[in-house]
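Title: [Solved] Hydrolase of the HAD superfamily 3D structure

Original question kept below for reference.
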Amino acid sequence: MNIITRNAPVWLFDLDNTLHNASHAIFPALMANMNAYIAHVLGDGVTPASEDAVNAARTLYWRRYGATMLGLVKHHGVKAAHFLDETHRFDSLTDMIRAERGLRQLLRRLPGRKILLTNAPQRYSMQVLRHLGLQRHFSHHISVESMKVHRQMRPKPSKLLLRKLMRRHGLTPRRCVLVEDTLANLRSAHALGMRTAWVTQYLEVGDAVGLAHPQKRLIRPAYVDVKVKSVRNLPARLHHLR
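Solution (posted by the thread starter after getting help):
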């Protein structure tokens, strides 16, 4: 049973490369799907766009909007739901998932409520949670489809999104701990007054643009309160996150 007290933190957990190893097989397949989708969107209806054109668009939209999808929606009339559905189609998702043992025990040990906060779509993230047996450990499951502010999509690292989440769930930033692999998301959370935990074991130097924020070196920035290799290290670092 989860330990919940009045002063217990509220944990906001990312999913990909935080609770499981998405870099192993899922991210490469997702990147291939994304490139094929962008090539079709940028093509002339018969011939897909070139690899150079696809890479340029993906990089530009990721840097400008924080998510390639938002650029496609804004400039090419793409429907977000269609993009998410097409790019997250996998032949056998469960065979692609790699994760540590003991995650359920970890979530039970951490005092306080847990909320899943993922830029991944609902159908995909629920499949991953069910495979890992973690779905019952989260009081709320916030996927990218519900990350809207004033009817506009605002996925992480949007501060507008995080403020809306605080209001909706009656939280104060100082009670919250964001557990993430992506530094840009941790930076936004820290700026609002949240505690931050950076999970590094699944990161690869030069992670593909549009899927993760690449890091040259895994040096802990000032806005990261705790750097851990694995989420399983969180209980031992709890005193730094109070």
